[in-house]
Amino acid sequence: MRFFTATVLGLLAPSLCAATNLTTPSRLDLPSGFKPPQVFKNINLVRNTNLEKSYVRETINVVVENVDKQPQNDYYIPFPAEVFDRVGGFEVRDKKAPEKGRFDVDYTEAVPSDGNQYFVVHLPEPLAPKSQITLGISYSVLSSLSPLPATIGQADKQFLTYSFSAYMPSAYTTVTQKTKLKFPSNNVPDYTPTEGLKSGSDPERKGTTYTYGPYDTAEVAPGTEHPITVRYEFTKPVITVNLLERDLEVSHWGGNLATEERYWLRNNGSELTNQFSRVQWTFTSYQKAPTSALRELTYPLLPGSVDPYFIDDIGNVSTSRYRPSVGKSAGNLELKPRYPIFGGWNYSFRIGWNNDLASFLRRAAGVDSDSYVLKVPLIEGPKMAEGIQYERVVVRVVLPEGAHNVRFELLEGTNSNGLPGAKHIYAHLNTLKTYMDTLGRTTLTLEVDSLTDEARDSKFVVTYDHSMVDALRKPLTIFAGLLTVFVAAWGIGKIDISIKKR
Amino acid sequence: MAPSSLDVVLKGSSGRNTRGLLRVIILCTIAAAAVSSRLFSVIRFESIIHEFDPWFNFRATKYLIENGFYSFWDWFDDRTWHPLGRVTGGTLYPGLMVTSGVIYHILRLLTIPVDIRNICVMLAPGFSGLTALAMYLLTSEMSDSPSAGLLAAAFMGITPGYISRSVAGSYDNEAIAIFLLVFTFYLWIKAVKNGSIMWGALTALFYGYMVSAWGGYVFITNLIPLHVFVLLCMGRYSTRVYISYTTWYALGTLGSMQIPFVGFLPIRNSDHMSALGVFGLIQLVAFAEFIRGYLPGKQFQKLLTSMVLLTFGLGFGGLVLLSISGVIAPWSGRFYSLWDTGYAKIHIPIIASVSEHQPTAWPAFFFDLNFLIWLFPAGVFMCFQKLKDEHVFVVIYSVLASYFAGVMVRLMLTLTPIVCVAAALALSCILDNFLVASTPSTETKAKATTDDKSLRSTRNPVVGIYSWFSKSVVVASVTLYLLLFVAHCTWVTSNAYSSPSVVLASKLPDGSQFIIDDYREAYYWLRQNTPDNAKIMSWWDYGYQIGGMADRPTLVDNNTWNNTHIATVGKAMSSREEVSYPILRQHDVDYVLVVFGGLLGYSGDDLNKFLWMVRIAEGIWPDEVKERDYFTARGEYRVDEEATPAMKNSLMYKMSYHNFQSLFPAGQAMDRVRNTKLPKESPQLNTLEEAFTSENWIVRLYKVKDLDNLGRDHSNAVAFDKGLKRKRATKHKGPRVLRTE
Question: What phi and psi, each to the nearest 5 degrees, are found at residue B530?
Fold first, then answer.
């Protein structure tokens, strides 16, 4: 009986220590009427706008000079408040030394006076007066492409429009600047030509690249806009994932990493003018003609992925196919939704698969170490030529029961990994009770807004402690539970309830 | 001779234990076989709810789990039978849903995260394992042979007659009801044997559970009183019968009245009157028995005769009076159709239109029961030989269930248990006699009586088989039959009863499986891309599936509680567009769903059911819809060039073939179900537009057009869009008259 009590006590003793590096994003509150101090000057600014995918990807290289008398280290980058929330994967690096990693970036509340919201880039070391630094800024803007015409016939071409300002909105005076647009094809029926901004024709067209500028804007006040609209053919689906929930479940006993992803997907392209015609679709599919409808998603899975499934609210989707990985090459999951997804149509589904845990989990150095290191992709997602934008991603890492001292870290490379900085990721810990848990499993939840499929290959590392006692908790609990049942059954069987005389 | 180690295990008290353990192992194996033979569809397809009614049960179960028991009890469903709604909580048998709800909550308590769908899918196989156990108990009460119960359990586990309603995914009331039926009968037999209040009360308890689970409880309600009545007629009145029957009737009736859908039926409906009558009768008989002890024989005779006459007169008069005044409801239509198979076709086409209400074809008995069907009479005969109280029960049950199974395909289900009991009795008798290794001893000859008058052969009745040859032949043939039975059951289950019917399977030329998933394609499209309250009109067969899979309100569904509403849908489907469109508008219909198999050769489509729509509509509007109009002058049902105008102009015809011809080269459109060439031109739809058609054209969805913006009628608007000249108004103008007002 003492053993039993001891077991129960041992089971109940909480071992979940608070984790350490979890962040809650907070926005800097600026005074109303705030203007960024004019301490910098953009000497030269080149903006590359890539429109090849269904979202806008911008990379800006800007040479910045400190024109103040003091060393400065806060560089402000403005966005209109309505665009700000759709900016994803914002990252700033030193263009000359990208391997040093991204700069720390804060973000602010909207300033009521000019309706801007700022990213505040903290330079790692203050920039001395008169000296220069080249910043490489990259980000993507989601849902900024709108189809025009808004409704098209089923077999028609689809056109998207994109509006921007020829003058890059910056908090500082810019001396020279230009914008390069990269279109998916030559078919650009409409674009705004500018007059009087520069000598010669503007924009310059070369293949699928259109260049606005260079403009000499040394005398132009910062914030001046010159609207440009381009309209180009994009006969591909505009795939938008409203919400992606991704669960990674670590099982030490099973040696298994189970992944499940739930997608709420929508095609934001042109809607159908008339209703859907199956006859026409049959002919389109037969001719393999380009279409604005989403026909199929291809999802490369990591080598060694097994037991994939593809289901939706009403059961298995029989039209999927899995080509398993051979050797080191990735497997390929071909997901065909139940119906072609035209503009304005929704489709929600879930997929999942298993991996061998050994290729993701290492025991930390030391022979008897109870510390583990898990390295997994943050998001994987289908790989499509037209790109995918994720409005919101929630990643849950379900660690074994009793895991404590949980820390996580996003891995940086020399290039952009498509992820925002750590301050833009909301991380918290909680517990999940499942499969006869007594305490519940420690769960690390990461929430990120506005991601694109550029983040496909980003990885992150979770470290946690998990001891032998934690691992034995469940078998002992089940043992104790069964023992209780048997003892109770035996005890009840002993009770004589007959009303006969003895 | 020292006892061998085997003898220690097989004889004495440890031998009893060994046999008990062996029996438990065999029963567990049988239960496992019963469960696993029902999993064909899960392995072949997926864990999915089958057919039509299970989709409603599944939806109701989800509602129960999400909203709790009390709101389930008070559930008014405004997403079916639009615009009427359905008082779902009061018009269903909640036993099934509550059972899965309880299982779900127990598993949740143990923090085992099982999806409610999987519980619903696996409920029927799980309960079929329990049915096999209950069968063992019931049969063991009938026979002294230890093998009879085990055989019956094995038969019950795998016989197709029961599997047909209990494969994985067939989440219907029958899934648990058959277990309850068998178990209630077991408890009843136990109660009659022991005359114990406890067993009687347990019978009532499970009877109450049965009432909450299936409308077929009426079978028990009538069978038990009949058993008692027959026992009384045979002069077998005893206190045992009295105690068990009164306990069961009082407690069971109270229990059954707790179900809102049943309510006061047990005292008001004719279907339940026999139980009440026998209850009264047994009181009188008990009273008579009591009086007999105090009165001399002659007076007692007089008293008895007068009392019988008086009671009969009073009872019969009262029954007639109450029936006329309407206190006791007359027999229900379904009940009449049990006695007269032609009744439904004439009076209630909606019941006749369901295939499972058709009379059973003879081969079906062999198909569903295989060799049990010819062992069955032998078993019943053996019951006549012994004829204890419980054997009387078997005999009555067999006679009644045989008749009902012949009338309605569906009631094969109630016949199956008793066939298993009887067949197991017969077979165990054969095996007990032939499967004996020792030859019968002839020592009894010495004690032979010297009665010269009787025949010598009857003088020394030695029961037993001497010849090894006959033993082995009989045993071998029985084994062969048993093996054939298993093979047959597996084959039938695999081929006939394991199709989910939501998903259709076909084979590609290379032999690989090709799944036709059109239903779910269309339902999921509806679910994802239409407003949450878009009303869908379809024939009632698909109502439950639309509610369950597409999650959209429907006009009619498989509940069929309102014949007029169904007839309205039938009328809309079978009339011209000008007639149908106002009906659609009045019922807020947004989408119309039809099932069309012409491209694929899927014969269960709406055009093949079309005549039932016409018939049901004709039942309500005989002046507007006439079945005759849909047949050609030669009485043929045609869809090609020769189709009648009523057929060609009906909404159903137009929706089925709309745009179908454009798939084929001009003039070569073929309907593969009806194997006919179609007219060159596809029919012109004015008031509806095609919204979605599934990959193989099985499900077609049409959106009901809004009123024309310019106030034209739709045929003019469509003609204008096509660039046709506007038809001149052909109304002949009369002579001009002077307007006087």
Answer: -125, 160
Type of residue found at A474: K
- Taking CA–CA distances from B46, the nearest residue in chain A reads A316
Q: Is the dihedral of CA A337, A339, A341, A344 positive or negative?
A: negative
Answer whether B44 touches A (CB < 8 Å).
no
CA A287 to chain B, closest CA, distance in angstroms equals: 15
Place of tokens 């067949």: B423
Angle, CA of B378, B379 and B383, to the nearest 5°: 115
Q: What is the mean pLDDT of residues B188-194?
A: 93
Residue B381 near residue B430, CB atoms below 8 Å: no
In DSSP notation, A52-74 reads SSSSEEEEEEEEEEE-SSS-EEE
SS3 assignment for B580-591: HHHHHHHCCEEE
Could you tell me the two tokens for A239? 């795939």
Domains, chain A, with CATH or none: 40-233 (2.60.40.1730), 239-476 (2.60.40.1730)
Position B460 confidence tier, pLDDT thresholds 50, 70, 90: low
CA-atom Rg of chain B in angstroms = 32
- B703 shares contact with chain A (CB less than 8 Å): yes
Q: Extract the tokens encoding B629.
A: 């109009």
Q: Is the pLDDT of residue A3 over 50?
A: no
At A119, is the secondary structure helix, strand, or coil? strand
User: Tokens 């203050």 appear where?
Assistant: A126
Beta A132-141 vs A87-94: how paired, if at all? Answer: antiparallel
Among residues B19, B131, B123, B122, the alpha carbon closest in space to that of B420 is found at B131
- Which residues of chain A have a CB within 8 Å of the CB of B110? 436
Q: Is B168 on the interface with A (CB under 8 A)?
A: no
Cβ neighbors of B58 (< 8 A, separation 6 or more) are B49, B117, B120, B171, B548
Interface contact B517-A434, CB threshold 8 A? no
User: Is 70 exceeded by the pLDDT of residue B238?
Assistant: yes
Q: Taking the C-alpha atoms of B245, B246, B249 and B252 in order, what is their torsion angle to the nearest 10 degrees?
A: -100
Over 60: is that where the pLDDT of A19 sits? Answer: no
Size of interface A-B (CB pairs under 8 A): 71
3-state secondary structure A241-280: EEEEEEEEEEECCCCEEEEEEEEEEEECCCEECCCCCHHH
Prediction ipTM score: 0.90
| Whether A458 contacts A417, CB under 8 Å | yes
Residue A92 corresponds to which tokens in the numbers above?
């700033």
d(CA B243, CA B50): 43
Q: Is A314 in contact with B691 (Cβ distance < 8 A)?
A: no
Closest residue of chain B to A264, computed from CA coordinates: B528
- Give, in degrees to the nearest 5, the angle at Cα A169 between A166 and A175: 75
CA dist B628 and A418 (Å) reads 70
Of A275, A348, A437, the CB nearest to B703: A275
Q: Which of the pair, A13 or B430, is modelled with greater confidence?
A: B430
**If 0-12 CB within 10 Å is exposed, 13-18 middle and 19+ buried, where does residue B430 land?**
middle
Question: Is the CB of residue A102 less than 8 Å from the CB of residue A93?
Answer: yes
φ and ψ of A363, to 5 deg: -85, 135
> Going from the N-terminus, what domains does chain B have, and what CATH number goes with each?
516-722 (3.40.50.12610)
Q: Do A278 and B692 touch (CB under 8 A)?
A: yes
d(CA B66, CA B60): 10
Token couple for B341: 């198979």
Residue B740: predicted pLDDT: 56
List A residues 292-321 in contact with B (Cβ-Cβ < 8 A): 312-319
Question: Which residues in chain A have Cβ-Cβ distances shorter than 8 Å to B549?
Answer: 314
For residue B48, which residues of chain A lie inside 8 Å, CB to CB? 315-316
